[in-house]
Design brief:
The chain has helices at about 5-20, 35-40, 45-75, 80-95, 100-120, 120-130, 140-150, 155-175, 180-190, 195-205, 215-225. By secondary structure, the chain is mainly alpha-helical. Helix 8 packs antiparallel against helix 9 and helix 8 (about 155-175) crosses helix 10.
């Protein structure tokens, strides 16, 4: 017999699996411009990484991608493909650096393939068909929201998992570039919990027209990344 507790446990196990760094999305290959900051000497220790990552979370990952996750979750649950296409379009327009926009789509479509293969889902199939038809783009935040709808994940939980996963992937990538020890990386993530909760709360109540990204320093770094002399990351 399926109980409420069992259903909640399944949702937790689902989030632990799809939000893990081991889930195949290709995020490990993207620094989103942070590699440029490392090359410039602006990030050389855990404190500098924590400060820069906090700005990214507060002014881009949360208000842009987080808000997209929340609205994609609701739109997918309602079968509203037009809104999903609108969210994709907004993300493509607001992710100014070419590499960042391409990273969002490449990791998103990889996540879509992996979730479809492991779990299936009618909302994911419909969204995948819309991508194939050229109506949607497949940005990572949108895919995560659609997958959350299929799995019955509440918006608040989906946001916490998405934001923590995004930050953990980024910190892990940059930690290898600096390099930092594993304990330093874990401390950065542990100290970011309050910021993640705050960003999730803000994204859960933001209107779709409020999506925004205001990290000019990182946009410039992302645009410069393709000309960095030695590159280990795609973006």
């Amino acid at each position: 017999m399926i109980t409420t507790t069992m259903a909640e446990a399944d949702r937790l196990l689902y989030l632990l699996q799809v939000a893990s760094a081991t889930f195949p999305t290709g995020a490990f290959a993207h620094s989103l411009g942070f590699e440029t900051l490392v090359a410039d000497g602006e990030i050389g220790d855990a404190d500098a990484l924590a400060a820069a990552a906090e700005l990214w979370l507060r002014f881009s990952l949360g208000p842009l991608d987080g808000t997209a996750v929340a609205h994609a979750r609701e739109a997918a649950g309602a079968g509203d493909l037009d809104t999903l296409a609108q969210i994709d379009e907004l993300l493509g327009a607001l992710k100014l650096p070419r590499e960042s926009a391409e990273a969002s789509v490449s990791t998103g479509t990889a996540f879509l393939r992996s979730v479809e293969s492991a779990f299936g889902g009618s909302h994911l199939r419909a969204y995948s068909d819309a991508i194939a038809g050229g109506d949607c783009e497949g940005h990572a935040a949108v895919v995560f929201g659609v997958a959350a709808a299929d799995a019955g994940i509440p918006v608040e939980q989906a946001l916490l998992a998405f934001l923590q996963s995004g930050l953990a992937n980024l910190v892990g990538v940059v930690g290898r570039l600096v390099p930092l020890g594993q304990l330093d990386i874990q401390r950065v993530l542990a100290e970011a919990r309050a910021s993640i909760r705050k960003a999730a709360r803000a994204a859960s109540v933001a209107r779709l027209e409020d999506v925004a990204s205001a990290v000019a320093f990182l946009d410039v770094a992302s645009m410069r990344h393709e000309r960095v002399y030695t590159r280990l990351c795609i973006s």
